[in-house]
Write a structure and sequence with these properties.
769 residues, alpha+beta, eight-stranded antiparallel beta sheet, globular
């Protein structure tokens, strides 16, 4: 009887699990179907976001501006006050944006003596020197007028150029006036309204003039006071910034039907993941595998660490790594990328992570370019990176309320990078060991990443976060090699939802997983991965749309395709020694840095631009590699790794507009491929890839620092003879050609070796430990 009851219970449990498996598949299908439905199908809100008041950390204020004396500027959440002295011209840039539509409202108080302009406020673009301003003039007339400025010089505020002026009326001393600015660059429309005592006038900008204003990447809302020989006072109060609904990084949905479906799927997903977690806790082979397997592995590593030599090596290496990187933190950083990361951290902690897809689109980074508002700080990443910056902002805010501008914030970002770099090296060791390599070669692979100068420069000087994305990908590889397909797919999905370049890892390693595991395993694992991923980004889906990951990817394609960016930013390379600096040298006769920063819209051959050619070559290469990974029989554990490396190297070498820091993404793949390359090719490929990446990063940062003044940093070319030398080397024709040819040779050698006859593998018991 007891046996019968046990059997009946087991049958019930089996039936429940079968139902849950089918429910998981249905939930995953529903989630994917909901994600791919164009968000335009649902009802959209009138406005995507609205912000009230001023954030001193997210606007740019220059007390001197174009003047010769400093003014007094006071910024609080409720108001901005500016008091000038003779010959001062303070500048405050409130927003910079390339969003098609904005709606701004602010109250204005202004007055001054003769020979002053108490307040001049409006939109302008340093890219084309055009601007449209409302001007509150001096007594006795106290005229309010609008000015259209063309062909001005790009400065902290436009100077020179041609000015056309139209009188709107006069303001009353002590009176408060509301200024409202509504723009729609998609339709070449700009409308200014000034209302208050004695004046209520709307002034539309002519369509042709609006087209000239908006024709490039971004415009800025900037205010100035020009004191001349007098003094003035101006205040901005009750500031409102409204972002009307528009497609950009996120395409917001406000539809009760979509919300109900999301909530239902969210509840089902939470139930399914809870069941898998309970199953794991009870010791079943569920989401996390068998607990005894984990404890056995932990016990094995404890025994290994009793080896004093190995333990000492690990401890000493870790200490040297941490101390060495910490010493680099203060040497410098990339001004633009670090400014972006501080903005993201501030927004994520102060406004909520979902606002990363809205607010940074209007945050000016004028301080990066010496006060000229060339661009904003848009957040081009997927939700997993939003979590990272939320964590970074939280940690940073523990030590200071000044999250964005505090020097310690930069250290926090770099410290977290260094921790993930250490974890990456640990995973590389574990993965190489799983590939039937000896402990010695596993240590070589991990050590070559742990002490790689390109990796150190990327995370501890430049301040990039690629090591975080790599951690998730490497975790996916290790989980696959330890036969945990569900967790591997989850980790791979999380890696893809960090930065656009990780989509290549998703495509290629996804092909590996499809080949590595049986169809039924993959269906079950992918279903659970979709459910887990949905739970992760559900907080964003509720505040934006469930299609957010696809919306972000689509806008990145739009930007990379060269139609969503300023023409000056659409180049064949952003500093990397890819294929294209060699092509521009041969085809166009470009020289020096022009070879790297040539416009990608320039025709390569008749009818085909560099951008189009690069995209076609990249797509063909990735398709070929993915096909090879799916259909080529893998007889050797890890044999896919050099093929993965070929795919990533091809992407980096062929895609236009990439930054040298992206080249770090290929390093772990190269380091884990030694068994299939041989010692000499391995050393050459890793050394060349690391060296050219380091020189490109260092040279680019030195080049940027040479014309931007960001303090007396040790790595600035004016302070460092080494940086000065590297910067010159980076831009020299001879070295550019050498570096690109060396990278091409490394790519060809890697491809040839990855396709050669497979190595003969000894039985596992005969492999030395």
């Amino acid at each position: 009887m007891r046996h019968f009851r046990s059997h009946a219970l087991a049958m019930k449990v089996s039936r429940i699990r079968s139902v849950l498996r089918h429910l998981t598949l249905l939930a995953a299908t529903g989630i994917i179907s909901l994600m791919v439905i164009p968000s335009g199908v649902w009802r959209s809100p009138v406005n995507d976001a609205q912000y009230h008041g001023f954030d001193p950390q997210l606007i740019y204020a220059n007390p001197r501006g174009n003047g010769s004396a400093d003014a007094a500027i006071s910024i609080s959440a409720g108001r901005v006050d500016v008091s000038t002295v003779p010959y001062a011209q303070p500048v405050i840039t409130l927003i910079t944006t390339s969003l098609p539509a904005i709606d701004i409202s602010t109250d204005v108080l202004a007055d001054g003596t003769e020979k002053t302009i108490p307040l001049k406020l409006g939109l302008w673009s340093p890219w084309n020197g055009n601007g449209y301003f409302v001007v509150f003039g001096p007594p006795p007339s106290r005229a309010v007028s609008v000015e259209w400025v063309t062909n001005a010089d790009a400065n902290v505020f436009p100077t020179g150029g041609i000015t056309e002026e139209r009188l709107l009326g006069s303001y009353v001393q002590g009176g408060t006036y509301n200024l409202r600015i509504i723009t729609d660059s998609a339709h070449d429309s700009a409308l200014y309204t000034v209302s208050g005592p004695g004046i209520n006038v709307t002034s539309p900008l002519a369509k042709s003039a609006a087209h000239d204003l908006f024709r490039d990447a971004s415009v800025s809302l900037t205010a100035t006071s020009i004191s001349g020989g007098g003094v003035s006072q101006a205040s901005l109060l009750d500031f409102w910034l409204t972002l009307p609904h528009q497609r950009y990084w996120a395409n917001k949905v406000d539809d009760i039907h979509a919300s109900i479906i999301v909530v239902v799927l969210l509840l089902i997903s939470a139930l399914l993941m809870a069941e898998r977690f309970v199953s794991a806790l009870l010791g079943g082979v569920g989401l996390a595998g068998n607990w005894s397997d984990w404890t056995d592995r932990a016990g094995s590593w404890v025994k290994r660490l009793k080896n004093k030599r190995l333990a000492t090596l690990i401890l000493v290496s870790t200490a040297l790594y941490l101390v060495g990187n910490a010493l680099l933190f203060s040497l410098g950083s990339h001004p633009y990328d670090m400014a972006n990361e501080r903005v993201y951290s501030r927004v994520a902690t102060q406004y909520g992570m979902a606002n990363l897809y809205y607010l940074p689109n209007v945050v000016p980074l004028a301080n990066v370019w010496g006060g000229v508002p060339y661009g904003a700080a848009p957040f081009p990443y997927e939700p997993v990176m939003a979590y990272l910056f939320g964590f970074v902002g939280f940690i940073g805010s523990l030590g200071s309320s000044s999250v964005v501008s505090a020097a310690h914030m930069e250290y926090v970002i770099k410290m977290i990078d260094v921790i993930f770099g250490l974890l990456d090296a640990g995973l590389i060791f574990l993965i190489v060991k799983r590939f039937n390599a000896s402990v010695g070669w596993a240590l070589v692979g991990a050590g070559a990443f742990l002490f790689n100068p390109a990796v150190w420069f990327s995370m501890s000087i430049w301040g990039q976060t690629h090591v975080f994305s790599l951690f998730l990908f490497l975790a996916a590889v290790w989980l696959a090699e330890t036969n945990r397909p569900t967790l591997s797919w989850i980790a791979l999905g999380a890696a893809v939802l960090t930065r656009p370049q990780m989509l290549v890892f998703g495509l290629l390693f996804g092909a590996v997983l499809i080949r590595k595991f049986h169809l039924q395993e993959n269906v079950r694992a992918i279903s659970l991965a979709v459910v887990a991923t949905f739970l992760m980004f559900a907080p964003f889906a509720m505040k934006t749309s469930v299609s957010l990951p696809l919306d972000v990817m689509a806008n990145n394609v739009h930007i990379q395709a060269g139609v969503g960016n300023a023409s000056e930013l659409r180049t064949v390379s952003q500093d990397a020694y890819s294929l294209w600096p060699l092509v521009t040298y041969i085809v166009d006769g470009s020289r020096g840095l022009e070879r790297i920063f040539s416009p990608s819209a320039r025709p390569l051959v008749e009818g085909i631009s560099y951008q189009s050619a690069g995209q076609l070559l990249t797509a063909a290469a990735l398709l070929a590699v993915a096909t090879l990974l799916i259909f080529r029989r893998q007889t050797d554990r890890g044999e896919y790794m050099p093929v993965l490396a070929v795919g990533m190297v091809a992407f980096l070498m062929l895609t236009p507009g990439l930054v040298a820091t992206h080249f770090v993404l290929a390093l772990p793949l190269l380091l884990m491929s030694r068994r299939w390359l041989g010692n000499l090719p391995y050393l050459y490929i890793v050394a060349i890839w690391s060296t050219t990446s380091l020189i490109a990063m260092w040279g680019d940062m030195g080049n940027v620092s040479s014309f931007l003044d960001h303090g007396n940093l040790p790595l600035d070319p004016k302070n460092s003879a080494v940086t000065n030398f590297v910067t010159g080397l980076y831009g020299s024709d001879r070295f550019i050609t050498t570096a690109v040819v060396a990278n091409i040779a490394a790519a060809i050698w890697l491809t040839a070796l990855s396709l050669r006859t497979r190595v003969r593998v000894a039985p596992p018991h005969a492999v030395p430990s």
